[in-house]
Request: fold
Amino acid sequence: MTHPTADDRKRAAALKALDLIQPGQIVGLGTGSTAAHFVRALGEKVRAGLRITGVPTSAAAETLAVEAGIPLAGVDDVPHIDITIDGADEADRAFRLIKGGGAAHLREKIVAAASRRMIAIMDDSKLVACLGAFPLPVEIVPFAHRTTMRHIAAAAVASGCGGNFIRLRGGDAHPLITDNGNLVADLDCQSIPDPEALAAALSAIPGVVEHGLFIGLCSGLIVGTETGVEIVEPPAHGG
Ligand code: 5RP
Reply:
């Protein structure tokens, strides 16, 4: 018996998320390889007659959605987004996420915040007890970015994180430029014992555009596993 690869598990989670999509809905389309499985599968349904409108979270997601034949609108062009399906770099069972491995977390967060529901899809390597092994992406403006990065590292220490190593994505010679014309600093925390405290500290730093901690935005996880999918939902009565 062959074991499903990480990509097989991502695809299984993405296909399960299709069950959540209803005709007529406005659907936020995430970025990354897991979300790409979802976008392609949703495109097949559209070609088979499903009527939905997609709202892409990045230039890459938009390109993919156009190729898949999904009709698109911008966030500002729709009254609300019914549901957003997006990937994640890490998630815990309190629905806190690290996102931004694809440097799209600013737009992803704007789309998630405009959505009635956000569901994260992933393979099971991403479901963790404590966030922070994946370096936290922080989008920053180019002006004085070294100073901003020092403040970010200090915020990690003050928030009790296990590490505070920070690097510019792409390096000084060829820094990655986001869809918004900014830079990304990756903050290696090792562990983030208090994600809410770190999120608040990072948001308070001038020069930080947006960090990749998603807190209070996601309401469910679909996790591809060796044997199928695990669905993680809030308790029925909120208790
Ligand atoms: C992009 C993201 C992605 O959703 C995240 O990096 C997961 O990517 P993948 O599905 O390729 O593992 O946050 O900014």
Summary: The two ends are 40 Å apart (CA to CA). The chain has six helices and 13 strands.
